[in-house]
Amino acid sequence: MGTVTTTTEAMRTPTEDGSPAAAAAAEVDLRHHGDAEVRGRDELVDLAVNVRAGTPPAWLKQCLAESLDGLAAYPDGRAARAAVAARHGVAPERVLLTAGAAEAFVLLARALRVRRPVVVHPQFTEPEAALRDAGHVVGRVLLRAEDGFRLDPALVPDDADMVVVGNPTNPTSVLHRADDLARLARPGRVLVVDEAFMDAVPGEREALAGRVDVPGLVVLRSLTKTWGLAGLRIGYVLADPGLVAELSRAQPLWPVSSPALAAAEACVSPRALAEAGHVAHRVAAERRHLVAGLSEVPGVSVVGPAEGPFVLVRVTGGGGVREVLRERGFAVRRGDTFPGLGPEWVRVAVRDRATADRFLSALRGLCP
């Protein structure tokens, strides 16, 4: 029988150093993302990309269509910035609109002069890739499967002057406690919390967005996942006004297009927030169904409790199973490009029950 890992207490895990093992771990492909699993393969059922299926909704498409009438004018982000600020109860000076959360990682890497950045893994790899591209030597804190991939603030080196962590974390789907994240803050340190999937958590439990009492806090949000806007590129940063100004100076002129600005304003409206809340509860129910089915498959275990719109799964013979699943029409995200994981790990996006049942049937046929 499969098992659901529910360990909640992380144990001390060393930070990667210059050892041969660490050097080998550093060679993973940090620029491999889920879209590579389905590119050019329209016939595959996409369980590799975490963008919500069936999006964007009709009302949002209409909003984008109407924005096209203003394409002759240069983008003006003031209204969208004010709308995002109001959504989180902060001043507009604490908001920076970006071309997706990925741009924010590049801005942080290029604009801030940090000496010892540390990334908590496994997590989205783009922050580390951006830091390395900017010439930084990046430390890693590797959370362990046997500890449920839970964060222990004591694992982070005291002299780290930038710490990057996801919440809920991609790909583990672990939701860390806000108090544990806040404990990472200290004078002279930039604490970057990637909340790209927080709107998929009912009630946005453990969110730090909108907090102004945590020194050095930088929260990143994405509007591409829940609303199906990955091709439009829109996200934002919430941080101290001084840091926002510093990042803004590193942006080119007019970094966010007019349609993306219209989307940002629409996606933080009361209507959109209410819809996102309903979606989060629906995703939670569909995730429970998927996890229950996975727990009955021999040779399969799920990291839990999962809180994002995806689950991390350990499968006996993972790499081979992933390839056979592709032959049977299902694409899942390989795990071995995430530091701290290996070829036996895959990430599976949460979809509707009918899709999940078809996937589970295919998986059971591989795990007798």
UniProtKB/TrEMBL annotation:
Residues 1-13 have a biased composition (Low complexity). NCBIfam families: PRK07908.1. It comes from Streptomyces aurantiacus JA 4570. Belongs to the class-I pyridoxal-phosphate-dependent aminotransferase family. SUPFAM superfamilies: PLP-dependent transferases. Its cofactor is pyridoxal 5'-phosphate. The lineage of its organism: Bacteria, Bacillati, Actinomycetota, Actinomycetes, Kitasatosporales. It comes from the Bacteria. Its EC number is 2.6.1.-. InterPro entries: Aminotransferase_I/II_large, NHTrfase_class1_PyrdxlP-BS, PyrdxlP-dep_Trfase, PyrdxlP-dep_Trfase_major, PyrdxlP-dep_Trfase_small. GO terms for molecular function: pyridoxal phosphate binding; transaminase activity. This is Aminotransferase.
